[in-house]
Protein backbone atom coordinates (compact mmCIF):
# COMPACT_ATOMS: atom_id res chain seq x y z
CA UNK A 1 0.00 0.00 0.00
CA UNK A 2 2.66 2.48 1.04
CA UNK A 3 4.71 1.63 -1.99
CA UNK A 4 1.77 2.40 -4.28
CA UNK A 5 1.30 5.83 -2.66
CA UNK A 6 5.01 6.51 -2.90
CA UNK A 7 5.08 5.38 -6.51
CA UNK A 8 2.09 7.63 -7.39
CA UNK A 9 3.68 10.59 -5.66
CA UNK A 10 6.91 10.10 -7.56
CA UNK A 11 4.99 9.65 -10.81
CA UNK A 12 2.96 12.85 -10.25
CA UNK A 13 6.04 14.88 -9.37
CA UNK A 14 7.88 13.61 -12.42
CA UNK A 15 4.89 14.13 -14.67
CA UNK A 16 4.08 17.67 -13.52
CA UNK A 17 7.77 18.50 -13.63
CA UNK A 18 7.95 17.48 -17.25
CA UNK A 19 4.76 19.41 -18.02
CA UNK A 20 6.26 22.58 -16.67
CA UNK A 21 9.38 21.91 -18.67
CA UNK A 22 7.31 21.51 -21.85
CA UNK A 23 5.36 24.72 -21.14
CA UNK A 24 8.58 26.59 -20.40
CA UNK A 25 10.07 25.42 -23.64
CA UNK A 26 6.87 26.33 -25.42
CA UNK A 27 6.77 29.82 -23.98
CA UNK A 28 10.40 30.55 -24.67
CA UNK A 29 10.09 29.19 -28.19
CA UNK A 30 7.27 31.65 -28.81
CA UNK A 31 9.12 34.48 -27.22
CA UNK A 32 12.82 34.46 -27.78
CA UNK A 33 13.44 37.36 -25.44
CA UNK A 34 11.41 35.80 -22.61
CA UNK A 35 9.77 39.19 -22.12
CA UNK A 36 6.33 39.59 -23.76
CA UNK A 37 4.76 36.16 -23.64
CA UNK A 38 3.27 34.79 -20.44
CA UNK A 39 1.19 31.71 -19.72
CA UNK A 40 -2.58 32.21 -19.95
CA UNK A 41 -4.19 33.09 -16.64
CA UNK A 42 -7.83 32.61 -15.74
CA UNK A 43 -8.91 35.91 -17.18
CA UNK A 44 -11.11 36.35 -20.21
CA UNK A 45 -8.92 37.97 -22.82
CA UNK A 46 -11.87 38.17 -25.21
CA UNK A 47 -14.11 40.37 -23.14
CA UNK A 48 -16.36 42.73 -25.06
CA UNK A 49 -15.17 46.29 -25.38
CA UNK A 50 -17.52 48.59 -23.42
CA UNK A 51 -18.56 50.52 -26.55
CA UNK A 52 -19.68 47.29 -28.22
CA UNK A 53 -21.44 45.96 -25.12
CA UNK A 54 -23.50 49.17 -24.92
CA UNK A 55 -24.46 48.84 -28.60
CA UNK A 56 -25.40 45.16 -28.27
CA UNK A 57 -27.65 45.91 -25.30
CA UNK A 58 -29.34 48.66 -27.33
CA UNK A 59 -29.83 46.29 -30.26
CA UNK A 60 -31.31 43.62 -27.98
CA UNK A 61 -33.88 46.23 -26.89
CA UNK A 62 -34.50 47.46 -30.45
CA UNK A 63 -35.23 43.93 -31.72
CA UNK A 64 -37.68 43.44 -28.87
CA UNK A 65 -39.27 46.79 -29.73
CA UNK A 66 -39.70 45.58 -33.33
CA UNK A 67 -41.26 42.36 -32.03
CA UNK A 68 -43.85 44.40 -30.11
CA UNK A 69 -44.57 46.65 -33.11
CA UNK A 70 -45.36 43.57 -35.23
CA UNK A 71 -47.39 42.11 -32.38
CA UNK A 72 -49.45 45.31 -32.34
CA UNK A 73 -49.97 45.03 -36.12
CA UNK A 74 -50.94 41.35 -35.80
CA UNK A 75 -53.49 42.22 -33.17
CA UNK A 76 -54.92 45.12 -35.18
CA UNK A 77 -55.36 43.17 -38.44
CA UNK A 78 -56.78 40.15 -36.66
CA UNK A 79 -59.21 42.23 -34.60
CA UNK A 80 -62.99 42.22 -34.92
CA UNK A 81 -62.91 45.69 -36.53
CA UNK A 82 -60.53 44.74 -39.34
CA UNK A 83 -60.53 40.96 -39.89
CA UNK A 84 -57.51 40.39 -42.11
CA UNK A 85 -56.41 37.04 -40.64
CA UNK A 86 -53.84 36.37 -43.41
CA UNK A 87 -51.94 39.57 -42.68
CA UNK A 88 -52.36 39.05 -38.95
CA UNK A 89 -50.58 35.72 -39.43
CA UNK A 90 -47.73 37.37 -41.34
CA UNK A 91 -47.20 40.04 -38.67
CA UNK A 92 -47.42 37.44 -35.91
CA UNK A 93 -44.69 35.48 -37.66
CA UNK A 94 -42.55 38.63 -37.94
CA UNK A 95 -43.11 39.37 -34.28
CA UNK A 96 -41.82 35.91 -33.32
CA UNK A 97 -38.79 36.33 -35.56
CA UNK A 98 -37.88 39.64 -33.93
CA UNK A 99 -38.26 38.04 -30.52
CA UNK A 100 -35.74 35.42 -31.62
CA UNK A 101 -33.38 38.14 -32.86
CA UNK A 102 -33.49 39.78 -29.45
CA UNK A 103 -32.72 36.38 -27.89
CA UNK A 104 -29.74 35.97 -30.19
CA UNK A 105 -28.26 39.21 -28.86
CA UNK A 106 -28.91 38.09 -25.28
CA UNK A 107 -27.14 34.79 -25.93
CA UNK A 108 -24.26 36.55 -27.65
CA UNK A 109 -23.73 38.98 -24.76
CA UNK A 110 -23.66 35.99 -22.41
CA UNK A 111 -21.31 34.07 -24.70
CA UNK A 112 -18.83 36.94 -24.44
CA UNK A 113 -18.97 36.89 -20.66
CA UNK A 114 -21.00 40.07 -20.17
CA UNK A 115 -24.43 40.70 -18.66
CA UNK A 116 -27.50 42.12 -20.36
CA UNK A 117 -28.44 44.70 -17.70
CA UNK A 118 -32.13 45.56 -17.33
CA UNK A 119 -34.40 45.78 -20.34
CA UNK A 120 -35.22 49.22 -21.69
CA UNK A 121 -37.73 48.71 -24.47
CA UNK A 122 -39.52 51.55 -26.25
CA UNK A 123 -43.20 50.66 -26.52
CA UNK A 124 -44.94 50.82 -29.92
CA UNK A 125 -46.60 54.21 -30.44
CA UNK A 126 -49.09 53.29 -33.13
CA UNK A 127 -52.07 51.00 -32.57
CA UNK A 128 -54.03 51.17 -35.82
CA UNK A 129 -53.43 51.37 -39.59
CA UNK A 130 -55.96 52.42 -42.24
CA UNK A 131 -54.71 49.89 -44.81
CA UNK A 132 -52.32 46.93 -44.75
CA UNK A 133 -50.07 48.91 -47.13
CA UNK A 134 -49.58 51.55 -44.44
CA UNK A 135 -48.42 48.88 -41.96
CA UNK A 136 -46.11 47.29 -44.53
CA UNK A 137 -44.57 50.72 -45.24
CA UNK A 138 -44.03 51.23 -41.50
CA UNK A 139 -42.43 47.78 -41.35
CA UNK A 140 -40.06 48.71 -44.20
CA UNK A 141 -39.03 51.91 -42.39
CA UNK A 142 -38.43 49.98 -39.19
CA UNK A 143 -36.37 47.28 -40.93
CA UNK A 144 -34.27 49.96 -42.66
CA UNK A 145 -33.58 51.53 -39.30
CA UNK A 146 -32.70 48.15 -37.74
CA UNK A 147 -30.39 47.30 -40.65
CA UNK A 148 -28.62 50.67 -40.42
CA UNK A 149 -28.10 50.11 -36.71
CA UNK A 150 -26.55 46.68 -37.33
CA UNK A 151 -24.24 48.19 -39.94
CA UNK A 152 -23.30 50.98 -37.52
CA UNK A 153 -22.49 48.43 -34.79
CA UNK A 154 -20.43 46.46 -37.29
CA UNK A 155 -18.40 49.61 -37.99
CA UNK A 156 -17.84 50.22 -34.27
CA UNK A 157 -16.85 46.56 -33.85
CA UNK A 158 -14.27 47.03 -36.56
CA UNK A 159 -12.89 50.48 -35.72
CA UNK A 160 -13.27 50.84 -31.96
CA UNK A 161 -13.54 47.33 -30.52
CA UNK A 162 -11.37 45.60 -33.14
CA UNK A 163 -13.58 42.58 -32.61
CA UNK A 164 -13.67 40.14 -35.52
CA UNK A 165 -15.88 37.67 -33.65
CA UNK A 166 -18.61 40.27 -33.24
CA UNK A 167 -18.23 41.42 -36.85
CA UNK A 168 -18.61 37.83 -37.98
CA UNK A 169 -21.70 37.32 -35.79
CA UNK A 170 -23.42 40.40 -37.24
CA UNK A 171 -22.55 39.46 -40.80
CA UNK A 172 -23.60 35.82 -40.59
CA UNK A 173 -26.65 36.03 -38.37
CA UNK A 174 -28.18 39.38 -39.35
CA UNK A 175 -27.08 41.31 -42.43
CA UNK A 176 -28.20 38.76 -45.00
CA UNK A 177 -31.53 38.17 -43.30
CA UNK A 178 -32.21 41.92 -43.06
CA UNK A 179 -31.59 42.45 -46.75
CA UNK A 180 -33.87 39.61 -47.83
CA UNK A 181 -36.60 40.54 -45.35
CA UNK A 182 -36.65 44.14 -46.66
CA UNK A 183 -36.81 42.80 -50.22
CA UNK A 184 -39.88 40.71 -49.38
CA UNK A 185 -41.63 43.58 -47.64
CA UNK A 186 -40.95 45.86 -50.62
CA UNK A 187 -42.50 43.29 -52.97
CA UNK A 188 -45.52 43.00 -50.71
CA UNK A 189 -45.85 46.83 -50.73
CA UNK A 190 -45.73 46.87 -54.55
CA UNK A 191 -48.40 44.18 -54.70
CA UNK A 192 -50.63 46.14 -52.32
CA UNK A 193 -50.07 49.39 -54.25
CA UNK A 194 -51.20 47.66 -57.43
CA UNK A 195 -54.71 47.21 -56.04
CA UNK A 196 -54.98 50.88 -55.08
CA UNK A 197 -57.30 51.81 -52.26
CA UNK A 198 -59.46 48.77 -52.82
CA UNK A 199 -60.72 46.92 -49.75
CA UNK A 200 -61.92 43.97 -51.83
CA UNK A 201 -58.49 43.53 -53.46
CA UNK A 202 -56.91 43.61 -50.01
CA UNK A 203 -59.41 41.02 -48.86
CA UNK A 204 -58.48 38.70 -51.76
CA UNK A 205 -54.74 38.95 -51.06
CA UNK A 206 -55.40 38.41 -47.37
CA UNK A 207 -57.41 35.28 -48.15
CA UNK A 208 -54.58 33.86 -50.26
CA UNK A 209 -52.11 34.46 -47.43
CA UNK A 210 -54.50 32.93 -44.95
CA UNK A 211 -55.08 29.81 -47.08
CA UNK A 212 -51.36 29.45 -47.75
CA UNK A 213 -51.82 30.01 -51.51
CA UNK A 214 -49.47 32.96 -51.20
CA UNK A 215 -46.46 33.26 -48.92
CA UNK A 216 -43.94 36.04 -48.41
CA UNK A 217 -41.11 33.66 -49.31
CA UNK A 218 -42.62 33.11 -52.76
CA UNK A 219 -43.02 36.77 -53.66
C1 LIG B 1 -33.57 53.82 -22.35
O1 LIG B 1 -33.49 53.99 -23.74
C2 LIG B 1 -33.65 55.32 -24.18
C3 LIG B 1 -33.68 55.30 -25.70
O2 LIG B 1 -32.63 54.58 -26.24
C4 LIG B 1 -32.52 56.16 -23.60
O3 LIG B 1 -32.67 57.51 -24.03
C5 LIG B 1 -32.56 56.09 -22.09
O4 LIG B 1 -31.46 56.78 -21.56
C6 LIG B 1 -32.50 54.64 -21.64
N1 LIG B 1 -32.68 54.55 -20.21
C7 LIG B 1 -31.87 53.83 -19.43
C8 LIG B 1 -32.23 53.78 -17.99
O5 LIG B 1 -30.89 53.25 -19.86
FE1 LIG C 1 -34.63 41.74 -36.42
Automatic annotation (TrEMBL):
<feature type="binding site">
    <location>
        <position position="98"/>
    </location>
    <ligand>
        <name>Fe cation</name>
    </ligand>
</feature>
<keyword id="KW-0409">Iron storage</keyword>
<comment type="function">
    <text>Stores iron in a soluble, non-toxic, readily available form. Important for iron homeostasis. Iron is taken up in the ferrous form and deposited as ferric hydroxides after oxidation.</text>
</comment>
<feature type="binding site">
    <location>
        <position position="101"/>
    </location>
    <ligand>
        <name>Fe cation</name>
    </ligand>
</feature>
<feature type="binding site">
    <location>
        <position position="63"/>
    </location>
    <ligand>
        <name>Fe cation</name>
    </ligand>
</feature>
<dbReference type="InterPro" id="IPR012347">
    <property type="entry name" value="Ferritin-like"/>
</dbReference>
<dbReference type="GO" id="GO:0008198">
    <property type="term" value="F:ferrous iron binding"/>
</dbReference>
<dbReference type="InterPro" id="IPR001519">
    <property type="entry name" value="Ferritin"/>
</dbReference>
<feature type="binding site">
    <location>
        <position position="143"/>
    </location>
    <ligand>
        <name>Fe cation</name>
    </ligand>
</feature>
<keyword id="KW-0408">Iron</keyword>
<dbReference type="InterPro" id="IPR008331">
    <property type="entry name" value="Ferritin_DPS_dom"/>
</dbReference>
<feature type="binding site">
    <location>
        <position position="178"/>
    </location>
    <ligand>
        <name>Fe cation</name>
    </ligand>
</feature>
<dbReference type="Pfam" id="PF00210">
    <property type="entry name" value="Ferritin"/>
</dbReference>
<dbReference type="InterPro" id="IPR009078">
    <property type="entry name" value="Ferritin-like_SF"/>
</dbReference>
<dbReference type="GO" id="GO:0004322">
    <property type="term" value="F:ferroxidase activity"/>
</dbReference>
<dbReference type="GO" id="GO:0006826">
    <property type="term" value="P:iron ion transport"/>
</dbReference>
<keyword id="KW-0479">Metal-binding</keyword>
<dbReference type="GO" id="GO:0006879">
    <property type="term" value="P:intracellular iron ion homeostasis"/>
</dbReference>
<comment type="similarity">
    <text>Belongs to the ferritin family.</text>
</comment>
<dbReference type="GO" id="GO:0005737">
    <property type="term" value="C:cytoplasm"/>
</dbReference>
<dbReference type="GO" id="GO:0008199">
    <property type="term" value="F:ferric iron binding"/>
</dbReference>
<keyword id="KW-0560">Oxidoreductase</keyword>
<protein>
    <recommendedName>
        <fullName>Ferritin</fullName>
        <ecNumber>1.16.3.1</ecNumber>
    </recommendedName>
</protein>
<dbReference type="InterPro" id="IPR009040">
    <property type="entry name" value="Ferritin-like_diiron"/>
</dbReference>
Amino acid sequence: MNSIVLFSAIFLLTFSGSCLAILDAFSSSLDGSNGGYSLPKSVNNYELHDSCLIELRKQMNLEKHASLVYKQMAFHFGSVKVVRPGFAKIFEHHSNEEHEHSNKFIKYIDLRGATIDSFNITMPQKTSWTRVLEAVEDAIDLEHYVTNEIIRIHRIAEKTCKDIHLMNFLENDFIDEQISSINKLMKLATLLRSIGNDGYGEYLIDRDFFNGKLSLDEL
